[in-house]
Amino acid sequence: QVQLVESGGGLVQAGESLRLSCAASGGTFNAYGGMGWFRQAPGKSREFVAAISWSGSNTRYADSVKGRFSISIDNTKNTMYLQMNSLRPEDTAVYYCAANQRRRDWLPPYEYWGQGTQVTVSS
Can you tell me the distance from the alpha carbon of 45 to that of 105, in angstroms, rounded to the nearest whole number? Predict the structure, then answer.
């Protein structure tokens, strides 16, 4: 059973940066799969943030984070990262990582989900 554990969330001021990590364990990931980040703000539905292929050669971002967030992956450590720069109050949310293990696609939908990490950006 694949397990995903997020870390790196916290409270920052607008304009500052955070780096989230997502460590995957419990399975072998196929070369055609991938991982992604989603977020859910209070009172809102979960939304896509970014995705990356297992090789790291393909990435995709939501328009709201393009140019500010950067997704990366270290497949030797089974760990994905989300570097978040120029954070805004509207980035406040619980951030979730997700992954495909058997499904041969690096894009959503994903088979496995983490528990989430809180990111709060104060103005």
Answer: 23
Q: Which residue do the tokens 């293990």 mark? A: 101
What token pair was written down for 56?
Answer: 């790291």
d(CA 116, CA 23): 12
Distance separating alpha carbons of residues 31 and 90, to the nearest angstrom:
34
pLDDT tens, N- to C-terminus, the chain (123 residues): 889 999 999 999 999 999 999 999 987 777 788 999 999 999 999 999 999 999 999 999 999 999 999 999 998 899 999 999 999 999 999 999 999 988 889 999 999 999 999 999 999
The DSSP string of the chain is --EEEEE--EEEETT--EEEEEEEESS---TT-EEEEEEE-TTS--EEEEEEETTS--EEE-TTTTTTEEEEEETTTTEEEEEE-S--GGG-EEEEEEE-SSSS-SSSS-SEE---EEEEEE-
C-beta of residue 101 within 8 angstroms of C-beta of residue 27: yes
